[in-house]
TrEMBL record:
Residues 1-20 form the signal peptide. This is Uncharacterized protein. Keywords: Signal. It comes from Mucilaginibacter mali.
Length: 271
């Protein structure tokens, strides 16, 4: 049992060799909240908020209806755009998970039941209804899982930044970009409407985003402040290092052989 625990711990250690890219997003046409990094725009009708915090930049969208009448989001006419390629936000499926429980009382007994739900339901429409003075929140899709490798070394500068590591700081490589030089540009196009005499009256909103800063590090993203506060303008991607992949294979083989030898020598410890 002890040897099994040692093996598990060493495997976990050996498989943790990764590189990370922490990306900072900016925009030319939607304001960024300096306190939380979220992108916010609003007018007399609606307040729209974007957050991209997390692995691979999940698009988290919050839409608040400021009107005294219902507002609708038409996902079929809304899209994520990169270059000349558009991907519709519409999805005809919703994934349902959860737990259920119940109690049945008979004449002389009480019975209990429980279970879980894991299902997919088909939605009849690709429209979201927002009642007056309420909001909806949706995580739509992930922007990218790409780990950028083509940026020249002379574009990066080394810098110590605060972290939760033992030393209190981490040495990272940082590159900064304008819109034209950015490794990633994308847009979000939203179609909202209200009903006017049973006819949809559309309002279109288009917002652009680009990576303005890229940070290369071997430190876990969770160790940095942006992750602790879940800043909306930060996201990260990762990849296993070549050395880590080799070390993992060789190390695991060596550990397995070593543990097997210990078990053969001390068979009572394998129980």
């Amino acid at each position: 049992m002890k040897n099994t625990l040692i093996l598990s711990a060493l495997v976990l250690l050996l498989t943790s060799c990764s590189k990370y890219q922490i990306n900072v997003l900016s925009s030319n046409n939607i304001k960024k909240d300096p306190d939380n990094g979220k992108f916010v725009t609003e007018n007399d009708s609606v307040k729209i908020t974007y957050s991209f915090f997390g692995r691979n930049a999940p698009i988290n969208l919050d839409v608040y209806n400021k009107l005294n009448e219902p507002l609708y989001i038409d996902w079929q006419r809304s899209a994520f755009i990169t270059g000349d390629k558009a991907v519709s936000y519409a999805s005809d499926k919703v994934y349902i998970t959860g737990d259920v429980s119940g109690t049945s009382i008979g004449n002389k007994s009480v019975s209990y039941s429980s279970g879980s739900i894991d299902a997919v339901a088909t939605l009849p429409k690709s429209v979201v209804f927002i009642p007056p003075h309420t909001h909806v929140n949706n995580t739509l899709l992930e922007v990218t899982s790409q780990f950028v490798t083509y940026i020249p070394d002379n574009k990066f500068t080394k810098k110590e930044i605060p972290s939760l590591s033992i030393s209190g700081t981490s040495l990272v490589n940082i590159a900064e970009f304008g819109t034209d030089q950015s490794p990633l540009n994308f847009r979000s196009y939203l179609s909202l409407y209200v009903m006017d005499n049973n006819v949809p009256k559309y309002m279109a909103y288009e917002h652009n985003f680009f990576v303005s800063k890229l940070i290369n590090t071997s430190e876990e993203p969770a160790n940095f402040e942006f992750s602790q506060v879940r800043r909306g303008d930060y996201f990260y991607t990762s990849k296993a290092t070549a050395g880590g992949q080799v070390a993992t294979g060789v190390g695991i083989a060596a550990v397995v052989v070593g543990v097997a030898a210990l078990d053969a020598k001390h068979p009572e410890t394998a129980k």
